Structures are given as C-alpha cells and as structure tokens.
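Example S7 (structure tokens).
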C-alpha cells in the first residue's frame, strides 16, 4: 500500500516525480506552482483513492456476506442509481433551463445532489427492510429500484441536449481529483467510522454466514443486523459516489482477491485486509490512469473496469464457483 501510495503520488500530467516530491517536502526553495500542484491536487487525490478504495471494498464484503452471494457488490441496493438520477436531474435540468453555474458552485452542487440521491435511495431501502425479512428479497428489491432509477435516467438522457449528456457521461466515468482538502476531511468523517463499525460487526458477520437459524440461536437480532449492514453500506457507497462518481469493480473484485490472499473466512481479518487491498488497488489504478498520456488522465472507472472485469472472469473460469465463505 505504501508503494502504491508513492506510485499514485508521483504520477500525473505535471512533471512531478519522486525527486520533486522530496524537494517539496524538505526544500523551501521549491517553486510555488509545484507546491500548489502537490498540496492542492496530488495529495488530496491520493488520500481520496485510499478512502474510496476502503469504503467500496468493505461495502462489497458486507454485501456479499449479507446476501451470501459472491456476485453482490456495494451498488446492488440501488444507492448508485439514486445518485446517478439526481446528478442527471441537476446536469440535464440546468442545461435545459439554460442555467450556467460557476465552476465553484458546480463542484459543490454535483456532490450535494449525488448525496441527496443516495439518501433518498437509502430511505426506500430502509422502508423495504422493515417489511421484508429475507436477504434475497431485499437484494431483488434493491435491483428493481436500480432499474427504476435507470429508466428515469434514460428518459432524461433521451430528452437532453448533447452537451448535457456529455457532462453527465464525464461525471459517470468517475474521478478522484475533484475532492478538495475540506471535502477530503468530510469524506474521512464517513469512511473511517463506517470501517470501524464494520470491523466491530466481525463476529456477527462470521455467525451470519452459518445461517439464519444458527444466528438466531446465538442471540443475534437478524432484523437489526440486516438494517445495520444496509445502513453502513449505503453510507459508505453513497459518500464515495457523491464525491468521486460511480467506481466499478472495486467492491465486487477486492473481497474475492482478499480471500485468495488471506485464505480465511474470519471477518476480523477480512475487514481490515479488504480495506487495505481495496485502497492499494485503487491507488494502482489511479497511477496507471495517469501513465498512459502526458496530456490527459484516463477516468478511474475505465481503469478499474479494465482490471476488475478480467479478474472476475478469471475467478469464473478458475472454478465453477467463486471462492466464498
């Protein structure tokens, strides 16, 4: 993770390698422009990759355990669909109304609208979880809500102008570089407590994998447990989508990669190991996205898909079932 951190920190469009970074940290005579690039962009982006990788990978682990399904990921509850829909309403609605935002207002409005969409989706999921007592039914409900959000979003895209569609498409590709120092602090206020809460649920997650009847016999309140896992996953996923946009395959692939490395079903090991692995992988993806060209940065969603999709295919062909449990 430390090597991936340095790799991500030293890669980018600007000529700011490891030597220049050392000079910035220990030499006061470094040009102000390089200092601004490092402290205002490179450093926040790298820490954003760590927090986003932790949040998405732990969310994927929680979802795969809750639904006892190796194909479950952090986006199955429709949280991303709700965020996408609200951002689509903002981007395409303001374009249709010919409302022009300044860059500062736009950088605030997009994550706020994505967060509102995630909260609305979370509200519907929590209402369904009160009535539905089956994890499979909750999974299907989340998927159906995602289809509903996606259908409304498709209607907006059909009616929108090419300029609005392009803006929304660029956002949907994900970005780690739009988070400022202040936003990074807010992001950490959600991700770190969510990770700690997931770690404290480790014993209950282990027991839950053995079945509902066994969990109930050991005194676990299944409704409260499901509600807690859904809430933590929704908050972790929602805050990452709000600040970084949707990032694919980290939540799906990293839990399986972690199980292959650590060879243990115990969540007291899997939760922190998954967080470290997810942060490391997203740092590597960020660094790779910056290496392909000196003139532009490849969106993070493209890089994670190019790495994550072949890995999932490898798992499918390696065995008839995923390594799970």
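Recovered sequence:
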């Amino acid at each position: 993770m430390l090597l991936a951190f340095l790799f991500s920190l030293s890669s980018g469009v600007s000529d700011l390698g490891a030597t220049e970074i050392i000079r910035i940290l220990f030499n006061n005579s470094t040009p102000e422009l390089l200092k601004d690039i490092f402290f205002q962009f490179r450093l926040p982006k790298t820490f954003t990759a760590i927090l986003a990788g932790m949040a998405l990978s732990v969310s994927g682990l929680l979802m795969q355990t809750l639904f006892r399904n190796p194909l479950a990921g952090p986006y199955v509850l429709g949280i991303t669909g709700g965020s996408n829909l609200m951002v689509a309403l903002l981007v395409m609605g303001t374009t249709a109304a010919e409302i022009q935002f300044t860059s500062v207002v736009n950088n605030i409005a997009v994550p706020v609208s994505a967060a509102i969409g995630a909260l609305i989706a979370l509200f519907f999921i929590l209402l369904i979880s009160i009535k539905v007592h089956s994890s499979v039914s909750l999974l299907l409900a989340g998927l159906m809500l995602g289809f509903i959000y996606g259908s409304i979003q498709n209607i907006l895209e059909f009616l929108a102008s090419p300029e609005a569609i392009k803006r929304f498409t660029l956002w949907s590709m994900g970005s780690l570089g739009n988070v400022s120092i202040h936003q990074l602090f807010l992001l950490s206020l959600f991700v770190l407590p969510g990770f700690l809460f997931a770690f404290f649920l480790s014993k209950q997650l282990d027991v839950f994998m053995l079945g509902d009847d066994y969990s109930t016999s050991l005194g676990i309140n299944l409704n409260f447990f499901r509600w807690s896992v859904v809430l933590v996953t929704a908050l972790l996923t929602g805050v990452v989508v709000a600040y970084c946009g949707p990032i694919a395959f980290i939540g799906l692939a990293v839990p399986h990669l972690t199980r292959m490395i650590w060879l243990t079903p115990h969540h007291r090991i899997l939760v922190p190991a998954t967080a470290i692995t997810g942060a490391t992988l997203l740092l590597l993806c960020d660094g790779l996205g910056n290496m392909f060209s000196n003139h532009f940065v490849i969106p993070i969603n493209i890089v994670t898909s190019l790495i994550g999709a072949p890995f999932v295919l490898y798992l499918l062909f390696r065995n008839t079932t995923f390594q799970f449990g």
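Notes on this example. The chain has 14 helices and no strands.
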